[in-house]
């Protein structure tokens, strides 16, 4: 996955993501693509969650999946989640859950709960950084005011780091793939540097849905695992999602 | 720096002018649905699932086929179908009830719908 929160020169925030999923889950020789990735595309839906006839939050999700990986609370915050791989991974959390140790939260249930119940960017940030989880994760959170944007790096038990927008020091965007931002990515899976190169080339004054979509359409940020691209603007109450495909030649991840 | 990704054609110069989406990397728009949180959790997803149940069952069958190719005895599938549903009541509210509603609406076994919903936790290894 690749997620980004960026602030333009007027202080408006954009939040976008590519959702990549299905690595090693079967290869479709006929279509030259990952099997699960291909079968997930028809399940992608945008959902407007309403209470009393009013929107509580909106999301891009998969039919049949009740948790959330991408969503926005209009006027308040936007949230995406990227997978974080670890030896102390979610399978240990699941085993603990089966054995009766149930003090951790399922990752996608937490994101859904935050989208449904949190009433501010700060409250969302606190819940995402402090709630004990069954699996490690990266939470990418955007708000509706200048410098409200961060990447929260989580282990199952602790918040390891919060990387925030910091305009004074030139951090006008935060961009997360699937590696801790303070460490180098895996050499054969470096989507971060190409993505950041495109963001720098675009520059803060030209950031928009269009230029962010351009970055997310550049190989290898776009790759064989990319299922959908979502673009969000909290202040404009806009969420747009598009199904993606990466025709050959294209990186398998 | 990358290795494989530094070698064209697997990498490319930053794209421009791709928006509004069209062309070979655009597979289509995503449809909108409404979920009414005032409804009982078991009923919330029924309309959406009634439209998507074929796609959902194809995906879950593919995951089962994949599991069977690794564990040919089908014991793993039986375990999912018989043991996972026993844990549904341990999921926080309203998620367990919503998953039950999706299993009912799709006609898929509860354990298999539950597995789909905890896929992330299982695959972060």
Order of helices and strands of chain B: EEHHHHH
Instruction: Give the CA-based shape of chain B.
Output: extended
Secondary-structure element order of chain A, N to C: EEEEHEEEEHHHEEEEHHEE
User: How is the main sheet of chain B built?
Assistant: none
Counting DSSP H or I runs of 4 or more residues, the number of helices of chain B is 5
- The coarse silhouette of chain A is globular
Q: How many alpha or pi helices of chain A? A: 6
Largest interface: A-B, 85 and 65 residues
Secondary structural class of chain B: mainly alpha
Give the overall pLDDT of chain B as a whole number. 91
Decide which structural class fits the backbone of chain A.
Answer: alpha+beta
Provide the gyration radius of chain B in Å: 20 Å
- The percent range for helix content of chain A is 10-25%
Tell me how many strands of chain A there are: 14
Strand content of chain B: 5-15%
Oligomer: heterodimer
Residue-averaged pLDDT of chain A: 96
Helix coverage percent of chain B: 40-55%
Radius of gyration of chain A: 17 Å
> Termini separation of chain B (Å)?
24 Å
The poorly predicted ranges of chain B are: none
List keywords for this structure.
heterodimer; A: alpha+beta; 7-stranded antiparallel β-sheet; 5-stranded antiparallel β-sheet; B: 125 residues; 5 helices; extended
What layout of secondary structure does this protein have?
The complex is a heterodimer of chains A (253) and B (125).
Chain A: E1 2-7, E2 13-20, E3 27-28, E4 33-34, H1 35-40, E5 44-51, E6 54-62, E7 70-73, E8 77-83, H2 90-98, H3 107-117, H4 121-130, E9 137-142, E10 149-154, E11 159-164, E12 173-176, H5 192-202, H6 209-216, E13 226-233, E14 238-244
Chain B: E1 26-29, E2 32-36, H1 46-70, H2 75-82, H3 95-106, H4 110-117, H5 119-122
Helix pairs in contact in B: 1-3, 2-4, 3-4
